[in-house]
């Protein structure tokens, strides 16, 4: 029996004008600043933001005492505060319309790992996450785009099985090799090989 493929909903929307200089420059800047892989990752966040703004606009058109606005609005605001995108002192639908793409990119696991000092660069943070070195609370997460909740922000650390984690075997050796550049490592190995040859010649 043939396998039925799973059909998922849309996760991003391509821009209407493909060659808009201002937008292209902005996207390129975001990719470099937040260590994103491609434009699709930017479009995915933009799509989520557009859906949230649309919901907020629809709720604002309703009457203030409308139950849909009361319950739907409070649920939306609570969700945004929990993720850390919206500050608690700005829990109003008007402030939701002012949200930017950077607010969401700041909450990505990749950005949080770099800001906590667990990685040397934003790109190194992505490598650590993909290689299963990072956990959030007790759960290992290997998705750089994972949205970190506000209460989980300080509970990001190396996994217990990672050699980079506290007390892991060979932690100091691994850290030493990471912080040492690739060229320096090669030179060091050559120097060690040369010393070994000289020692054997003397014998």
UniProtKB/TrEMBL annotation:
Coiled coil: none
Annotated Pfam families: Ribosomal_S4, S4
PROSITE patterns assigned: RIBOSOMAL_S4, S4
InterPro entries reported in the protein's UniProt record: Ribosomal_uS4, Ribosomal_uS4_CS, Ribosomal_uS4_euk/arc, Ribosomal_uS4_N, S4_RNA-bd, S4_RNA-bd_sf
Keyword annotations of the record: Ribonucleoprotein, Ribosomal protein, RNA-binding, rRNA-binding
Listed GO biological process terms: ribosomal small subunit biogenesis; translation
Positions of the Small ribosomal subunit protein uS4 N-terminal domain: 6-106
Gene Ontology CC entries for this record: cytosolic small ribosomal subunit
SMART domains linked to this entry: Ribosomal_S4
Matches recorded under CDD domains: S4
MF term (GO), any: structural constituent of ribosome
Stated role: Component of the small ribosomal subunit. The ribosome is a large ribonucleoprotein complex responsible for the synthesis of proteins in the cell. Part of the small subunit (SSU) processome, first precursor of the small eukaryotic ribosomal subunit. During the assembly of the SSU processome in the nucleolus, many ribosome biogenesis factors, an RNA chaperone and ribosomal proteins associate with the nascent pre-rRNA and work in concert to generate RNA folding, modifications, rearrangements and cleavage as well as targeted degradation of pre-ribosomal RNA by the RNA exosome.
Protein family according to the UniProt entry: Belongs to the universal ribosomal protein uS4 family.
PANTHER family from the UniProt entry: 30S 40S RIBOSOMAL PROTEIN (PTHR11831), 40S RIBOSOMAL PROTEIN S9 (PTHR11831:SF5)
Name used for this protein in its record: Small ribosomal subunit protein uS4
Source organism of the structure: Paragonimus westermani
